[in-house]
């Protein structure tokens, strides 16, 4: 048989490695009855014409081979090296914080590679390649730091900043004095669905 397959020469870690079997019988009547793939790691042999995408558990260089056997017992094989490239490191601080509306907050992204900031809320003033951004979102926003390394591998970290907007509160009683240790229901406006209903004791 004429064993052949196509694939990328390198991939980024966490990206599935795919192959395309392009094998043909030497003669049209000599059908290929067996395909055995070895991806060069501890995953073992895969018997299939077209295997599922393969996930490597580490970075490094791996020898990928395909061996085919036809109905006459004749064999052929092909080998190719694939390099699994590392993904860049990126980390945002602070993580998932709450601030009062109007406060300015400093966001920092740690990475040694190319950086790009973005946000779920449009119209914010950001410095995309800067490691530090001073932000003042009017509403709750998710910030994203995207890092790209020399191999064009990408990592993304995010931080959700919850903005507490101004509110007013009133009680459910028409007078201003209550008995010691009494409770009263506070009505908050505007109401926020994520706030649990609470009763407050008076001191």
Summarize the structure.
The chain is mainly beta and 203 residues long. 0% of the residues lie in helices and 48% in strands.
Summarize this structure as a short list of keywords or feature phrases.
single chain; 203 residues; mainly beta; 5-stranded mixed sheet
State which percent range the strand residues make up. Answer: over 45%
Q: Helical segment tally? A: 0
Q: What is the helix fraction of residues, given as a range? A: under 10%
Report mean pLDDT, rounded to a whole number.
Answer: 88
Unreliable stretches (pLDDT < 50, length at least 5) are 196-203
Distance between the termini: 89 Å
The spatial strand order of the largest sheet comes to 2-7-6-4-5
What overall geometry do the principal axes of the alpha carbons give?
Answer: elongated
Q: Cα-atom Rg, whole angstroms?
A: 30 Å
Q: Please summarize the sheet with the most strands.
A: 5 strands, mixed
Number of strands: 17
SSE order, one letter for each helix or strand: EEEEEEEEEEEEEEEEE
**Structural class label:** mainly beta
Describe this structure as you would to a colleague:
- By secondary structure, the protein is mostly beta strands.
- The protein has no helices and 17 strands.
- The protein has strands spanning 5-7, 10-12, 19-21, 32-38, 45-47, 60-70, 75-85, 91-93, 97-100, 105-110, 114-119, 132-135, 141-148, 154-164, 168-171, 183-189, 199-201.
- A five-stranded mixed beta sheet has the order 2-7-6-4-5, with no helix packed on it. Strands 9-14-13-11 form a four-stranded mixed beta sheet, with no helix packed on it. The protein has a three-stranded antiparallel beta sheet with strand order 8-10-12, with no helix packed on it.
- Mean pLDDT is 88; it is low at 196-203.
